Amino acid sequence: MWKKRKNEKKTTLKEHILNYAANNRYFNINDLRNYFNDKKIDYKDDTLKKYLYLLKNEYAIYGAGRGWYSTIKPDFVLDTTPVEEIRTLILDKFPLLDFSCWGTEQIKGFFHHVPSQFVTLVYADKDFLQALKDFRSDNGYNRYQNPRKSEAERHVDLKTRTVVLRPSISPRVPKDRVWQE
């Protein structure tokens, strides 16, 4: 049987993980387990988890959510410029209103075919949607209040400055518990 020479270095579990990650943009812990089992690499599950944790802290790999890991470094940063005007107008008129907004223009870099017109979606408490709709019409916005799919297909006219108002989809969180940058 072949034996390792004294000066030959044994590959550590950490190195095995890094080697695997170098060839896979995304992977999860089960992928690693299967890889180690196929290659007959001895490991303990706790040790594997600890190394994944350490490698994340060393920024050698990155968390991709729900137990997935990635070798892709930059986080997705959403460009807020396309919604800045509407956000400012709403904050000026309704400073205490909890709302969120986003627009399809913010993600245009991920479209296969880029649309010529974009839509901004504003989410707020359903009791304030009518007030927002009235306010938006005063500022030259083409606005629609919570259209159903069938209504949207027939009646929503995609023009410049189109806004769709929707009821909030997340539970209210007290202001002192909201994370802010």
**What is the count of distinct domains?**
2
- Element string (H = helix, E = strand): HEHHEEHEEHEHE
The largest pleated sheet is described as: 4 strands, mixed
Please tally the helical runs, counting DSSP H or I stretches of 4 or more residues: 6
Low-confidence stretches: 177-181
What's the N-to-C terminus distance? 60 Å
How many beta-strand runs? 7
Radius of gyration: 25 Å
The amount of beta strand, in percent, is 15-25%
As laid out across the biggest beta sheet, the strand order is 4-5-7-6
Q: Helix amount, in percent?
A: 25-40%
Structural class: alpha/beta
Choose one word for the global shape.
elongated
Report the average pLDDT across residues: 82
Structural key phrases:
181 residues; alpha/beta; three-stranded antiparallel β-sheet; 6 helices; disordered C terminus
Describe this structure in words.
The protein is an alpha/beta fold. The protein has 2 domains: 13-70; 81-169, no CATH class. 35% of the residues lie in helices and 17% in strands. It contains 6 helices and 7 strands. It has helices spanning 13-22, 29-38, 45-57, 81-93, 129-138, 149-155, and strands at residues 26-28, 62-65, 68-70, 99-103, 119-124, 142-145, 162-167. A 4-stranded mixed sheet has the order 4-5-7-6, covered by helices on one side. A 3-stranded antiparallel sheet has the order 1-3-2. A hairpin with a 2-residue loop joins strand 2 and strand 3. It is elongated. Mean pLDDT is 82; it is low at 177-181.
